[in-house]
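pasting for the record
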Amino acid sequence: MHAYRSHTCAALTAANVGETVRLSGWVHRVRDHGGVLFIDLRDHFGVTQVLCDGDSAAFAELEKVRSEWCIRIDGTVKARDAELVNAKLPTGEIEVYVRELEVLGAADELPLMVFGDQEYPEETRLRYRYLDLRREVMQQNMALRSDVVASMRRRMWDQGFREYQTPIITASSPEGARDFLVPSRLHPGKFYALPQAPQQFKQLIMVSGFDKYFQIAPCFRDEDPRADRSPTDFYQLDLEMSFVEQQDVFDTIQPVLTAVFEEFGGGRKVDQDWPQISYKDAALWYGSDKPDLRNPIKMQVVSDHFRGSGFAIFAKLLEQEGTEIRAIPAPTGGSRKFCDRMNAFAQKEGLPGMGYIFWRDQGEGMEAAGPLAKNIGPERTEAIRQQLGLGVGDAAFFLGGKPKAFEKVAGKARDVIGEELGLTEKDRFAFAWIVDFPIYEQDEETGAIDFEHNPFSMPQGGMEALQGNPLDVRGYQYDLACNGYELVSGAIRNHKPEIMLKAFELAGYGEDEVKSRFGALFNAFHYGAPPHGGCAAGIDRIVMLLADEANIREVMMFPMNQRAEDLMMDAPSDPTSDQLMELGLRIIPQD
């Protein structure tokens, strides 16, 4: 017999009754029934109930074991009495009578329990992550992650892609976040960087004549943590193709992700029609470039109804250049209590509040109620109601000013309204491509032009588009949103050196700086670069959605905490004096 097991803890059935077997695993739970010990023995595959009484030579030793001890048992498979069968377990028809026991690894007093559903502080869970990972939900999440990655790989190979690896130690490159720098021992005073993404390398792979590339790529970004973002590293399905247009990229990644969500989504509906929404419209309708389309609410501009109206706050606001008033329809939200609650929400978000109108039935017809309705009068109120398509029992909320100042709060308010009123459809994955991103933005204080999004995107209209107002330039850049999260980001790349120079020139980068910072890419474009484009899908975030988790750390094996610390491995840590000397570095104490 094998040294540790003849079967896993999920393998035994009624067909094995009478057999002598060997199992190894962890003590999940111990129950003492007065002279008879029952133990749920757990391994990665499942649970088997084992038992022992005073007639067994192993009884005295088995009495000593406690939760999470790792043990090996030899015993005989017995059928459970019919009334004791556990239909919830694959092994529920049998139990194993223990005849021999070996303790493989005893456990000290546990800082957190594996059995049960107790909640523990994140600090405890991350410090003892190896115990936290033993819990059933974490085992399932990590298996799901592994299965999702394997499925992605198969589907990419099926579409004619090959996987190629790109360097982990490279040069610093602006990708929208801070680099992690790595000091060079052989070149004192100089630093490598961990790649924020394989962006330049995958473009160079296309220039090298490889038609299709993909990689399950680790990426490193020194970012502030969020619930849906790791502060240090993450993985993405990275792909690039030559001789493609934007739609070709969409047509490549959509079947891969659709199949993954259908395979692992637990029966939830997966939208097949993925609309393409411009960045401008997404901001207007949803207040976000990653909208949750399960929520049917669409915001609208209603500025004309408030110009010259009796509501002085909005009327005066609209006299300023670049301002507008937007309405958030709230079907079924027509009660003063709900409206006051949403007004309080806006105040918590840092705004003075949100104006509102709600419509109610007064017996003799519909009436518009609320402070705004009184100030602007019935004619304007009715025009707003008709524009928004609302009726009795409905409401609308209003925000005004320069859109960039209130869009984010408007988007949050839309989400809250959809949730609280039960309008957001659960058990569904709703996808949308966000397209036509602006390449440039202007600093309101200095007036300087800089890149708003990926600087390597091909501008729509090519060189000609760069001759006009930079703020009007749109890129062949796109994101895929799902249920309020960005899952994919990509672009058709700028592969022409003269366009590359002009694009960077508009953002204040001279030719020498472009050649210095992006020399490999710039030089490669002089040697017959093909048109190319691609995208990257965030694996951690995809698995988070599939696992129905609210925090990305629940689907990462060994994540950092909110302060970008690894409590288990004690990282970051202080370097030794010898290490600093070897690297030619000195730490300057912070005041």
